[in-house]
Amino acid sequence: MEPYNLTSTVEFLLLGLSEDPELQPILFVLFLIIYVLTVLGNVLIILAISSDSHLHSPMYFFLYNLSLSDTGFSTTTIPKMLRNMQTHNKSITYAACLSQISFFFLFGCMDSLLLAVMAYDRWVAICHPLHYQVILNPRLCRCLVLASFFISLMDSQVHCLMVSQLIFCTNIEIPHFFCDVPELLKLACSNTSINNIVMFLVSIITGFLPASGIFYSYYKIISSVFRVPSLYGKYKAFSTCGSHLSVVCLFYGTGLGVYLSSSVSSSSRESMVASVMYTMVVPMMNPFIYSLRNRDIRKALQKIVSWIT
């Protein structure tokens, strides 16, 4: 079979979650609801933080940016999948596929880095409360978010560049609902060892290092909290980072599930089902976790609802 560069291909196919025509309307409604809830929930968080001066603090500044990133993360994959279901057209152009890869890693890496920054914020707030305002000053907060963005941008461009160098055979059917890099590597006819090494190294920098930072931050937090003599003080300290810890477990737990499922099993179907949690359910759940566990967010949201009604 003669290989050729993907740039010569006008388009290729996203096979999606299911090819059963009777299941398509159910999946369309389900994922439409998930997307609407994701956008609505994150937009409400953004409006609440923007409109309430009491929420203009480092913790909520990072949450604001996390909501922006989650909205972009979901918008990268779900609208295209919904459009393919509605039109019964599974094709996606080469340029659109590269764009999807670029934005997917941009927002995915941004989520990972922002969660690490938020863990650092909680560490400073609990372990160094008297110096919190001095350490996490507005300039440092902006620098941390900008650094997260530029690292994520570099990560996305590396993945995009690696994929653009691949050579594919005539089989251009991707057994996924978006242009997933591991699936594209499986379809490549050329040697992908360099791609795998580069992407592994990049994944360590953008995935393992933030996760290690989060683990270290919570190790210091727990050690500090256990030294607090008051039971109420311990409860108050844990309650300030409860929402963030829930989001971290959800994000890294489902993300890790994708990679473990792909390494243990070669089934693209299992990996794709795990990806639904990672790319759709997590961004939808984040606003609910923060709004339900955070009294200040709830008050700000109530003001917005009362203003609208």
Overall geometry comes to globular
Spatial extent as radius of gyration: 21 Å
Main beta sheet strand tally, sense and closure: 3 strands, mixed
Total domains, how many?
A: 1
CATH topology grouping: Rhopdopsin 7-helix transmembrane proteins
**Strand segment count:** 5
Measured by DSSP, the beta-strand proportion falls in under 5%
Low-confidence stretches: 1-7
Class from helix and strand fractions:
mainly alpha
- Provide the residue-averaged pLDDT: 82
Q: How many DSSP helices?
A: 10
> What share of the residues lie within helices?
over 70%
**Class in CATH?**
Mainly Alpha
Notes on the protein architecture:
The chain has ten helices and five strands, in the order ββααβαααββααααα. α1 runs parallel beside α9 and α5 runs antiparallel to α7. The protein has a single domain, classed as Rhodopsin 7-helix transmembrane proteins (Rhopdopsin 7-helix transmembrane proteins), CATH 1.20.1070. With 309 residues, it is mostly helical. The strands form two sheets. The protein has a three-stranded mixed sheet with strand order 3-2-5.
